[in-house]
Amino acid sequence: MAKYIGKRLLYMILSLWMIVSATFFFMRIAPGNPFASEKKLPPEIEANLNAHFGLDKPWYAQYWEYLVRIVNWDFGPSFKYKSQTVNDLINEGFPVSFLLGMEAIFIAVALGVLLGIIAALKHNRWPDYTAMIIAVLGISVPSFIMASFLQYFLAIKMGIFPVARWESFMHTILPALALASTPMAFIARLTRSSMLEVLANDYIKTAKSKGLSSGVITIKHTIRNALLPVVTYMGPLTAGILTGSFVIERIFGIPGLGAHFVTSINNRDYTVIMGVTVFYSILLLVSILLVDIAYGIIDPRIKLAGGKKGE
Amino acid sequence: MEKLLEVKNLEVSFQTYGGTVKAVRGVSFDLHKGETLAIVGESGSGKSVTSQSIMKLIPMPPGQISGGQILLNGDDIVPKTEKQMEKIRGKEISMIFQDPMTSLNPTMKIGNQITEGLIKHQNMSKQDAKNRAIELLRLVGIPMPEKRVNQYPHEFSGGMRQRAMIAIALAANPKLLIADEPTTALDVTIQAQILELMKDLQSKMDTSIIFITHDLGVVANVADRVAVMYAGQIVEMGTVDEIFYDPRHPYTWGLLASMPSVDSDDSAELAAIPGTPPDLTNPPKGDAFAARNSYALAIDFEEEPPMFQISETHFAKTWLLHPDAPKVEPPEAVKKRMRQLSSTFEKPVLVKEGK
Ligand SMILES: Nc1ncnc2c1ncn2[C@@H]1O[C@H](COP(=O)(O)OP(=O)(O)OP(=O)(O)O)[C@@H](O)[C@H]1O
Ligand code: SF4
Ligand SMILES: [Mg+2]
Predict the structure, then answer these.
(1) Is the CB of B213 under 6 A from ligand 1?
(2) How many A from CA of B180 to the centre of ligand 3?
(3) ipTM
(4) What is the residue extent of each domain of chain B?
């Protein structure tokens, strides 16, 4: 187990290095620079600015400096906002994004699994059809449209929730719902099909032949096995929630990391773009690792490589 | 001997998009305490459906027991509710399935899969149940049972899984064990071991067994009586000797002729039964076997044959036993083994409907 995790960490560092390098070079290829704006800056000032941020040095020197700083968890200053470092932005925005993401993941998993189980247990009856209609809607409606719908009906028309901003728990519900709708629908379909597959399995018949009640069979034999694919989906789910939050945070005016990220791209704020990208990558890689470890714990057939082989 | 199980005129059908599949069409048999009945027949003949009906394990819908009675100790289980069946399943009747690779829950420890039934049926405490599970594993011949109870199915080989399945099935001391092709998925040496184990346990525990197989070779080893099924009906039933040495139904002849036997010389060809079983959505008029039967008479395509009785225990459903039927000879391979059995009646007797 320890050996397995060690190996995975090594791969993670390798992937991170590639991501950092790729972002670094793509940023340099992209036309324009952070100080290009409507107002033409006098060349002396621009040269000064470049010198101040180290942009006058050759690329390999910049690249090396950047790598060293990242290893020290220092993403440098923001080009645009003089007084803030990228670390400040992350420290400020991430807790907000994290809360939103967690809420969305919770909604997606809880509702999705519930819908899927109900649909499978009532296979080809009205609860199944209802759940699947909800799922198809959830999958086919993009989250930003879902967001506007929710804002229009639940906030503006019915006044149940605030329209936007990030002040109280009530403010978090609509954006979390909008963010959760697509993955929830996907999880519902995944759970349903995997439940149906498990229900058709011989071991369910075995369980029945022991005289267990259908409730016990569902809980002890069906759901646990049916949730294995859902656990696998948690990695991509995290990625989806992260990227989805860029747009949702903009729509609801939420001061999260996603919103900063979008702004910084518009501003060509090199250091912020790179810093946030690296930060997101770390987040994603860690969550995928956690999912894999969790999977190994839930499914006894998966022996994490490096662990002792059974038999 | 006491009758444990009596199946009377059982009819089971499935609603499908293509129409109603009549999978079991009037099956009757009984089973005594401690007896082993083998049900043989080719794929799709309704063996599994018949046996699963006895535990009411067929999926309903689409399945439905559309007629007949299943008397367990004289008590009809057909009208019983699911809640009532839960008290019978595992406790009175249990089942072993064909594929030990898929019939155990992959994410549950073997021990827990055994104790589940014990805790439910015998109100055992967790610890007692676990001790009993270890005992059962030892009984079915699994080495180091103390260690094995805590393992998962994937840590067991195929043969060991089937042993574990047997332990699960026997956990609550059922009176009837249904084994649906328990050795088909295993290789030959393991097959023999499992059969030996089942025979051994049967004599220890005095369980009755319904043993389903399409391998007649296995039958001779384990069964007291044999029922031959074809297209949802029992076409011949008798003791092992009667079926092997004095078979009367052309389908049984076909099965016997297609069975490889050690004593047959190499030149003797294995005769496969030609054709395929009929579509049970629209069973043909007359005898379901007529189209594949080289001995078929004109009447076979018109009217279903009745059951004839050849001895106290031997029944066959073929027009060939009718007094007016022409005398026919069974195929060579079968004729070679034919013997005169002392119990045979002078003449086949027509069994009256609703005997
Ligand atoms: N759930 C179901 N829905 C529709 N038809 C079914 C269902 N289960 C069984 N049948 C039909 O019932 C008939 C008998 O099937 P059964 O499984 O009893 O055959 P079998 O004798 O056990 O064959 P095998 O040796 O292949 O196990 C088949 O024609 C099959 O198509
Ligand atoms: S009744 Fe006729 S068709 Fe059926 S088995 Fe006998 S001889 Fe063949
Ligand atoms: Mg079968």
Answers:
(1) no
(2) 7
(3) 0.82
(4) 3-223, 228-350
